[in-house]
Amino acid sequence: MTQTMSGIAASNGIAIAKAFRLENPELNVDKRTISDVDGELERLTSSLEKSIAELEVIQKKTAETISDKEAAIFGAHLLVLSDPELVGPITERITTDKVNAEFALQETTDMFISMFEAMDNEYMKERAADIRDVRKRVLAHLLGVTIQSPSMISDEVIIIAEDLTPSDTVQLNAQFVKGFITDIGGRTSHSAILARTLEIPAVVGAKTAMADIQNGTIVIVDGLDGTIIIAPEDSVIEEYKNKQAAYDEQKAEWAVLKNEATVSADGQAVEIGANIGTPKDIAGVVDNGGEAIGLYRTEFLYMGRDQFPTEDEQVEAYASVLKGMQGKPTVVRTLDIGGDKELSYLDLPKELNPFLGLRAIRLCLEMPDMFRTQLRALLRASVHGNLKIMFPMIATLDEFREAKALLLEEKAKLQTEGVEVSDSIEVGIMVEIPSTAVMADTFAKEVDFFSIGTNDLIQYTMAADRMNESVSYLYQPFNPAILRLVKMVIDASHREGKWTGMCGEMAGDEIAIPILLGLGLDEFSMSASSILKARSQISKLSKAEMAQHTDRILALSNSQEVEDYVTKLSIK
Amino acid sequence: MVEKQFTITDEAGMHARPASALVGAVSKFKSDITIEHNGKKVNLKSILGVMSLGIPSGSVVTIAADGEDENEAVERAAEVMKTEGISNQ
Fold this sequence. Notes:
- The complex is a heterodimer of chains A (572) and B (89).
- Chain A has helices spanning 37-65, 68-81, 84-97, 101-117, 122-143, 166-170, 190-198, 209-212, 234-257, 282-287, 299-302, 311-324, 360-366, 368-381, 397-416, 434-438, 440-444, 454-462, 480-495, 512-519, 531-539, 543-554, 559-571, and strands at 3-6, 8-11, 14-21, 157-161, 177-182, 202-204, 218-222, 227-230, 262-263, 269-276, 292-297, 329-333, 386-391, 426-431, 449-452, 499-502, 523-526.
- Chain A has 572 residues and is α/β, with parallel strands linked by helices.
- In chain A, the strands form two sheets. Chain A has an eight-stranded mixed beta sheet.
- In chain A, helix 1 (37-65) runs antiparallel to helix 2 (68-81), helix 12 (311-324) packs parallel to helix 14 and helix 20 (512-519) crosses helix 22 (543-554).
- The longest helix of chain A is centred in the first third of the chain and has 29 residues, at 37-65.
- The radius of gyration of chain A is 29 Å and the shape is globular.
- With 89 residues, chain B is α+β, with helices and mostly antiparallel strands.
- Chain B is built from three helices and four strands; from the N terminus they run βαββαβα.
- Classes of the chains: A alpha/beta (572), B alpha+beta (89).
- Chains A and B meet through helix 2, helix 3, helix 4, helix 5 and helix 12 of A and helix 1 and helix 2 of B.
């Protein structure tokens, strides 16, 4: 009987194969009173030594077949096995309480496991799994039980397990293990991350897979949407084979596009950039063939800590992003805090309308010392790449002039101090307030570029709080009012020989892309995972043809008509 | 006794990789070595102890050593913090 269940999609792709249950042997620990303390300590030492020897092999193998970074976790496991705060209390329990080594180990590790599980940080919570992994290894040696190892599998299978320990996961051989399903875990658990690195389709958090799936049953794992189908009918297998082929084909097409420029069907080049929050995101941008950073949100540097980041810390972060992009355009947005984004160490008065209050550039101009520190850090980092500085939430030309004056003052100061600063830094603004879009022609004479922030531009134009569910119907990216503002901004920039980018959700939207291309948008900035899809879409669109449609699209009367119009165009 | 303060600059805070490097490096010294964060002090030769502090980015920690090789121990800890990129002091 076919049965369907669903879990958390943890790693993309589709796999169809026989189920292989990775059973967890029962490692029952009884409390026993012992008389031979030395003998018990000897058993403990020998089990620890055997575990260390095994882990050293796994660590070496991981470094060779995966990466040093993945191998590092076993370095931590090895340190746990010789941790004085672990081995000490275990020895103590055996010696004074006269209990068996298994029980002493269980009690002591339980204490650490509950300590990590109680932490309010996902990363630290996951560390409890590492302690369980280490404990299981030592307990198995103490009890003389052999643990099934995934490295013994020599047949194409889908692994079903309650959970995969980090050491299980690195032993998965992608040649035989086509996918895996676990009952517990989330997208950030160690096994999920490794599945994505190894490109093995995986669904985690399936809850009842171990209860419902027997060894040898054919299983479909759809890592794209988290679906699991047990004992599927032939027609369903056929359907999924097609889906798998379509996915592989698309992946191959996108892989080719990775190192290509973004060019429309009629040969017009545009730029696709990525929105990032931290220097760590650069790897994803490079992997997905990003041509630029269209938006680096610097506020993450200020969040999750208990004091302002120092100038040096900021230089380090900005420089690592610029170096990582190797000379490609990198737009850094200055601090956008206030509104719904708060800092624990910055005591801002409660406001009735935070989205209309003291936030972003308004706050920075109100707190010039904090702002100057960021500007100095940006200027100092500028020699490492192609830096463009962007001010958020600009409503008037005066605000832009004031912010730019501070930037130039800091630049002059640094130069007098003998610090090297790039001379080709473009300075632009976010366009997210309707007044600025309307006045774009005036702004275009003074700014070097515009970047349209659609999420805020829509909420301010429609006067609809985007956090308020009851007015969410007014969040209409395709409302002609928004599109007309976008056109005004793009046209104004081009008249002055400047450029316009877009860094909101809309820039990566399938319906929006043809319109924006037709309107002449120069740079599309989106989440890294959307880049290749957008590049593929643009390569099939003619910019000249889309431009002919824009007048008609902008003359439509509402959002739905625009969506219908574009959908019809793409079907044709 | 020798002690030194550090500000943790890695965005992920004191995570497993740098913590392992630090514990591995100082375990070779004879001195008693501790790390303190938020008023809680643990043995720096214990990976479980260090991780249990859950040290976030931006926090200030104090490393202290007491014993015959205390100077070298703190110096070595500072070096590891720097090469692992978790603190630049």
